[in-house]
Amino acid sequence: MRRRVPHLLGLALLAFFLAFPFVYSANDYPYVMHIMITSFFYAILASSWSMLAGYAGQFSFGHIGFMGVGAYTAALFSHYFWLSPVPTELCTEYRFGETWLVVVNPIGVTSTTLTQDCLRQAMEMWGDAVQPTRMPVWIGILLGTLMGGVFGFLIGVLVLRLRAAYLALFTLGFAEILKATISAEIEITRGQAGMELPALFESGVTLFGHTFDKTDKLPPYFVMFGLLLVCLAILAWLAGSKFGLFVRALREDQDAAAALGVNTTRYKVLVFVVTTMMAASAGAVQAHYVGIVTPNNLFLLQMSLVVAMAVIGGVESFIAAAIGAVLIEVALEMLRNSFVIGGVEIDMTIWRLVFFGIVLMLTLRFARNGLIAPLIGYFTRGHVARETVEHRLHPRAEEAAAK
Amino acid sequence: MEHPGTFWGVIAWMIVWGVAGSVAIRRRYLQHDLDTSNTTFVGAMLGAATGPVGLVPLWLKTPELTNRLIVLPAIGAVVLVAAAFAFADPDSNCVANGSFVASQITNGIIIGIIYGFMALGLTLIFSILGVVSFSHGEFYMVGGMLTYYVTVVWLPGINPLLGIACACAVVFVLGALFERMFLTPMYQGRIDRPVEYGILITFGLAFTLQYFVQAIVGSNPVKTRRYFDFPRVRLPSPEDPWLVKTSRGNLELFDTISISNPRLTAAVACVAVLGALLYFLHRTWTGKALRAVSQDREAAAIAGIDPSRMNMLAFALGAMIAALAGALLVQAFSWLPQVGNIPAMRSFVIVVLGGLGSLPGAFVGGILVGLVEAAGTGCIPDPQKAASYIPAYGMVVLTLTLLLRPTGLFGRRYASGAHGKF
Asked: Scanning every residue of chain B, which has its alpha carbon at the shortest distance from the alpha carbon of A351?
């Protein structure tokens, strides 16, 4: 019975999250929904990072960089590629049947310059007669995911020979270079000003006869939650298969694993590609949901949050990491309220992070497997010790029973 | 840039032959059952510098890779990049303007000394504890912040030296306490993967310290006055001071090179402290014990040295060095709680470039990184872009080092502990 408790609890949690947007109806509904969506976003990052770091032992600090790759690919795609029913005759454009694919020229920040990109010029000439449309959002998300995979493959190949500290430094360097490049190439990425994206469902979406417009939180909630479930399902499948066994062997002893016939190169690169694709897809969806991406999204703070969430949840269990991420994101938001003690105002927006850092250090020091993973383990594996003892005491009993 | 095609063409040519060289030469040496430890580096550099002209003889003859064969192609490759840039963009400030070049180089070396000093703390910690301390940047930040508070807010008018000493002492104690509280389980074999634990726990400390300081100080930038005014010097004569001219905040050499006071005093102080540190490490019992532990923990323990105490001392000392660098630079830069991030990254770069655990390597690496950053900021035509790319220059160096020569310039091939493997 005890073994089933985590499964039951998991189902209850699933039901709770599925029912939550319909049941909850307080005034702060959009705010709470926003927090839930953000917490799912972090849950995807934390669980995929726990696969990379906890299962495979590759302590990559560039995970947020891969998230940025996904977000910026989606942003660039939606910014530069348009569909138009008539040719602009100003831009680079390709004809597909009755529509033209318009590639907008990069001109940088428009607020300070009078020149406009070719599509805007064309639109001014057309007036209201012609409306060019954006490319579908899902193609951008897909491209972002693929681009994350490509980057993950490249980085995975580059770090093949590096271990532990070197790997951490290299991936941190990758994230920094990415951030610096995005901040510096103002003509293309608009630098610190950030890039605007269309909402996930720009023209609204109709579900069960109810129309949600683009600012409603319910559709993105289910998109992000669905993505989280897909990622968790893939991770569960991977962890339970040969792949999971091999990457754990890699973590414990790479040389021994290689000697026993594990293709270490292949699995190291593969685990990078899979996890970075998850991070990139989360980044792309989140970018479309929030509507803007800036290089500040790639700050080390974000990476610290992901690492801390995974570690506090339990880095060697992706489910625990995901639950940890959701709990911590919600807890951090709840701690936002400042209060006054003895005439001194305590600014909780900062102090909560201090508190969080201390929790992280104490967890690492005293509960190395996180706070949630041991709980799951208590229920699922608690019987193992007893059974082993029983088996040692009466080795023949089971065989006799089997006969 | 006038002819970007020329420049990028040369770079592409160098990359193609560099990659080809690194792969082919390593293969060849492996086939001939020779030492392959430097082949990747030499193959890449020789390929980049000379193309097939140099690679073919190397491939045919497979000579022993002496130091000369390691260093010369590397210099050749750097010279080739510089020459390509000079041809592509002859009017650029960093090609045509000699005094600008001299000034950039001098300032690059001076700031490089300070970088190297800070990286020294990181490499000291690494060589003894085997931990890459991710909280190094935060110790740097705390050092500067404490100096500011002591000399400006709490005790205005106090001698800045006392403020610096106070900051160093506080961070020393902080480092020692942290080591005792959080790093001790690492040495007792109670942790499966100590290197990762070390990274994560120092990462946690960095996070905590940064937001703790931000919560207390707020996020307004602070800065101290300069600690020391230059005396007024005019050489060789007051009318024609072409040799040396100083004002209170600036020093001018040969009418061309201008060095600001805070940076020069910081660099001089760093060199002085480095001397003291070298004396401590090589001439005193404790320093020798530290070095002994870094070479072989077990043997040192047998000789009567308590490695656990040396760990504490090394971590505290490393943290204090970072704090001292911060305390010296708070007169030069505006100070924010986030100020430590970029120097921390830079220290990682320097330490890997110099060879993890190598003290002279940290210093040489620091100067090299200082020069690379000076070249980067001076030569990229768009100044705004150049400034945005500052964190990336070092990271490019790091990437190249890790790919071509992961042991760094002076890295020991077999450092002690689990971190020796890379």
From this structure: B215
**Whether A169 and B348 lie within 8 Å, measured CB to CB:** yes
Provide the domain count of chain A: 2
The rounded mean pLDDT for chain B is: 80
Fold of B97-233+237-420: ABC transporter involved in vitamin B12 uptake, BtuC (1.10.3470)
B100 touches chain A (CB under 8 A): no
Which among B126, B208, B215 is the nearest to A361, CB-wise? B208
Contact check, Cβ <8 Å, A59/B199: yes
Percent of chain B with pLDDT over 90: 4
pLDDT of amino acid A343: 65
Q: Are A350 and B214 in contact (CB under 8 A)?
A: yes
So where are chain B's domains?
4-90, 97-233+237-420
Q: What is the pLDDT of residue A342?
A: 66
How much is the pTM? 0.83
Same-domain pairing of A14 and A119: no
Chain B residues whose CB is inside 8 A of the A161 CB are 406, 422
Of A164, A177, A368, the CB nearest to B419: A164
Range of the domain at A322: 2-81+136-334
